């Protein structure tokens, strides 16, 4: 659907060139909701704006729907852009036009007849839940409703791809959820591929099938959302996930770890383990096994169970104490059983 090959983008900044995208390779599949996450300045907007050539890369290929946008004539590019809708953080509605006329704008610009416009826009406003507000002006509707207009406008030309650049960043959490639900619905019911940019893992968690993590103009991590959540490889990814599953334990829990470490009998060691796992079946028996078969003491300190699109995602902080060899064996056993384990040094007596 979208095939990005060796793509680089450089801006001419006032203090010299800014290498905003460095050799990006990415393949976005038809029908998926693909998330792109990163901190401010990572290059997310730069990348998504290459997907409709609002930004022109200096090198590489941007193949959308089988055509390399960089090879197209102006007329062909206009045609190709009809298949690529875009929604923006600040909605970009025209204040002097009604909801209906804002949504209809791309069709008007393309010279579509009034009758055809009505035929297309009326059901679209229905889909985004704004049929009853068609004659209002942007100043007379809420932020969430404005974004619904933005989505209707982006869908007006019947695109196969919808690009969303921080579409929910200006909205409160509940409105964010409802807009993301709408994007999911558009994806499922109309079969539109959605590319969604955000700096919030919460957004990725709610809607994306796969996610790419960007840092300093590069894609540094890529995978299915559940995999990335359970087994993040890069520090930046970990820190983005922290917003949902805090890695820093509450002070009261840390005090408890201290107390447990100090209270260890001679010959025993203790280790604070951070466990994360996906899917719910195997988990309980695994912990029981540690206690029963390996003779470890486990204190569960902190835990959180979350849901990523119907799949359980759990994280747990436990303090394991027992003979050092048994702790090592326990970690290996957990890993063999699909539990990701991170050891945190503050738990050991010897540390
Ligand atoms: N028009 C421009 N001219 C020069 N530099 C730019 C321009 N637009 C963006 N940049 C620079 O390119 C880099 C990537 O910016 P970009 O807007 O793509 O980041 P972003 O990930 O979308 O950030 P944010 O989350 O803040 O929107 C930044 O260093 C930015 O300062
Ligand atoms: Mg941006």
UniProtKB/TrEMBL annotation:
- Gene3D superfamilies noted in UniProt: 3.30.70.260, P-loop containing nucleotide triphosphate hydrolases
The record's keywords, sorted A to Z, are: Amino-acid transport, ATP-binding, Cell membrane, Membrane, Nucleotide-binding, Translocase, Transport
One Pfam family named in its UniProt record: NIL
Family designation: Belongs to the ABC transporter superfamily.
Q: Give GO cellular component annotations, separated by semicolons.
A: plasma membrane
Superkingdom of this protein's organism:
Bacteria
The record's annotation in PROSITE patterns points to:
ABC_TRANSPORTER_1, ABC_TRANSPORTER_2
What GO terms in the biological process aspect are recorded for it? amino acid transport
**Ranges for domain ABC transporter:** 2-241
Q: What is this protein called?
A: Cell division ATP-binding protein FtsE
Gene Ontology molecular function terms on file: ATP binding; ATP hydrolysis activity
Per the entry, what this protein does is:
Part of the ABC transporter FtsEX involved in cellular division. Important for assembly or stability of the septal ring.
């Amino acid at each position: 659907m979208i095939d990005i090959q060796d793509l680089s983008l450089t801006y001419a900044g006032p203090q010299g060139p800014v290498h905003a995208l460095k050799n990006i390779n990415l393949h976005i599949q038809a029908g998926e909701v693909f998330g792109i996450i990163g901190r401010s300045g990572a290059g997310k907007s730069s990348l998504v704006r290459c997907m409709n050539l609002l930004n022109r890369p200096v090198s590489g290929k941007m193949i959308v729907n089988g055509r390399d946008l960089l090879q197209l004539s102006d007329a062909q590019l206009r045609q190709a852009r009809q298949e690529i809708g875009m929604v923006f953080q600040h909605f970009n509605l025209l204040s002097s036009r009604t909801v209906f006329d804002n949504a209809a704008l791309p069709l008007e610009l393309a010279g579509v007849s009034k009758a055809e416009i009505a035929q297309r826009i009326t059901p679209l406003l229905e889909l985004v839940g704004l049929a009853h507000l068609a004659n209002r002006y942007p100043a007379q509707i809420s932020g969430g409703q404005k974004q619904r207009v933005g989505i209707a406008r982006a869908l007006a030309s019947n695109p196969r791809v919808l690009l969303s650049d921080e579409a929910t960043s200006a909205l409160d959490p509940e409105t964010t959820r409802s807009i993301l639900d709408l994007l999911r619905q558009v994806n499922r019911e109309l079969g539109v591929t959605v590319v969604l940019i955000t700096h919030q893992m919460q957004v990725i968690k709610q809607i994306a099938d796969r996610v790419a993590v960007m840092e300093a103009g590069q894609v540094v991590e890529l995978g299915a959302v559940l995999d990335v959540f359970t087994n993040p490889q890069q520090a930046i990814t970990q820190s983005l996930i922290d917003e949902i599953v805090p890695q820093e334990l509450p002070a009261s829990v840390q005090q408890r770890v201290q107390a447990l470490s100090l209270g260890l009998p001679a010959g025993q060691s203790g280790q604070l383990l951070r466990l994360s796992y996906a899917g719910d079946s195997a988990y309980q028996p695994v912990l029981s096994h540690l206690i029963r078969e390996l003779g470890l003491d486990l204190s569960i300190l902190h835990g959180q169970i979350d849901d990523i699109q119907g799949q359980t995602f759990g994280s747990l902080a436990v303090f394991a104490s027992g003979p050092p060899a048994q702790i090592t064996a326990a970690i290996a056993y957990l890993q063999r059983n699909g539990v990701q384990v991170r050891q945190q040094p503050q738990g050991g007596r010897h540390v």
